[in-house]
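Protein modeling request. Please complete all fields; requests missing the sequence field cannot be processed.
Requester role: graduate student
Desired output: 3D structure, token encoding
Chains: 1
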Amino acid sequence: MGPVQWFLVIPALPLAAFLIMLGVTRPLELRAKRRQERVAVGAHGAGTDEAATSSSGSTSSHGHEDREVDHLPAAGADDHGGHEEHGPTPFWASVSGWIGVLAVFAAFCLSIAIFIQFLGDATLQKHGYSPQALYTWFNAGPLQYPIQFRVDTLTVVMLLVVTSVSMLVHLYSIGYMRGDPGFSRFYIELGIFTLSMLILVLAANLLVIYIGWELVGLSSYLLVGFWYQRTDPPPAALKAFVTTRFGDFGFMIGILLLFTATGTFNFLQLNTATTHVNQFYITVAMILVFCGAVGKSAQFPLHVWLPDAMEGPTPVSALIHAATMVAAGVYLVARLFPIYAAAAGPQSLMVVGFVGGFTALFAATIALVQNDIKRVLAYSTISQLGYMFVGLAVADTNTVGMFHLYTHAFFKALLFLGSGSVIHAVANQDMRKMGGLAKRMPITAITFLLATLSIVGFPGFAGFFSKDLIISTAFDYGAAGHVEGYILYGLTLFTAFLTAFYMLRLYYLTFGGRGASWLGLRGGDEQFRGEQRAHESPWTMTVPLLVLAVPAVLAGYWFCFFTFVNNGATVSFVNPLQVGNTYIGVAAGLLGILLAGLMYGTRRVVISPQWYTHVPGGAAVYTLVSRKYYLDELYAWLIRTFILGISSVFVWFDLHVIDGLVNGSASFVRGVGRITSRSETGQVQNYAAAIFGGAVIIAIALFLAVAYPLLNGK
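Delivered output (714 residues):
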């Protein structure tokens, strides 16, 4: 059967790398570090007699404290990895990194081979490769719970996205995390994530996909909280983990409802079995399944975890929170699309569409006022994921939404890695302290500009073909008699304008500025507002940028994508350039670009960035949006008032009722024992008196029971 028969090797490679790093290179690194510390302590203790005397026996402990401080990032430090200040990466840590790179590179090569095989085999495109069961988890009568994997065209696309982006992120991290004390731990956790995501996309049933789903959540928790010594990452990791649990709870209930109705977890069997079940029942189940996608793909109202997840290293943001993990929710809906379209009622996809459309606009408004470069991209990701859900809701197949997932993975990974290159150079994430970096960082600036043009939907770039297709499809859905299509069209069209504005604002504030050449896009030292002199990143960071720039521009030209993902069945594709409605979306994007240029790129101030202060209520609206509509505060209040309030009631009940009964009975027994224990004196005369008293009591009782009735004539 060719390369596809070896598809299980793809997840096995990062698994093997993970085991080698965890069991071999990481212990060797720690052993070498301890040896160096002993040598350092010995050298420190071999100082002059005066130094030894003044230290008064505290020399070694002070040296240990210095080493620990060196391992801790400074309080409030920005995300800029280890880098030069930590020195070179230790040998065994570097070995761990390259093992991870090579393992994922091999997985990518095998994915390419499988993709080529699928392209040339119509049978594989139509039916996929037969499921492979590793083992049966357990049997319960006629029910079976197999751990099963399968490859079809949808899987192949996801394999390409996951392995290609993961490979480039692994390589990028060699330079970005250089010298970081947790270097090898970082690669171990990246390996866990890559393995988890591959399990998720290769799953042949809901049982396995849920296992991968939860492992991905664990990976996110570990990587967001990677710099656990700092103040912000641990709460951000916990927030991400807990918030997504709410969605996962709905997902789990939806899975159980489907299994109860059909008796199977298998995707192919579910596609047919659900058509024979009550439609309302399936509609409820699929909306609950979508709850999992809402959490994992950071859609309103469970979007609040993603911006805070930017506390993790920037490569994590590129891999997990832009290109792959957050797209898992979109993949889930796409995988179950036959059930949404054929078995469930139209209400289920409308829920998907309206949640996506509202989230796209909602997140875009927040991105307008963010000053942290990574948070702008985080809200941009939330917004673009909303586009994908709209594409799934308004199209006849899952191909429109998946096409945007496919193109978005590349240009958004490029944007995040480009932001990491900037942070690496200036040791800062605040765009107000950047500007004019284009001349000092030409590779980063050019590749970042290409990705920016792609996400705004500039004609000819990958994002144009996928995003504008969603906008025009929403319009066509409305024209077909579905009023909700026009609503989604309006939401996505206005979001396109906002996207163009905030992305060009980001670029001007970071790389260009007022008075810069190329219409303000190519700035220099005169536009720089920071403190640390910028420099271009090392080759391990710039090469992934250059590689990603290619699909960021050209990925949209794979017009056969729709037929391929649709299992080889022909899907009509109309070039957006030939559709008049497309140019409305293009005009919205160009208007956003123009507005950003007038506000941030002209030599003289044409439109002040603070124009809103002159509009009645403008300052209040700005505050509302910059505070993210106070949703974090609202959730905190709800937690304090309801969750912690209800918890306090149960605590009181536990302490005063449950414990009261248990402790009260114990106190009663102890009291009785304390009273009766007084009879145990150890003196014979007391025991004799007790026996005599007992005999007297028995005699009186017998008299009352026998003699007294006789005396009364009874």
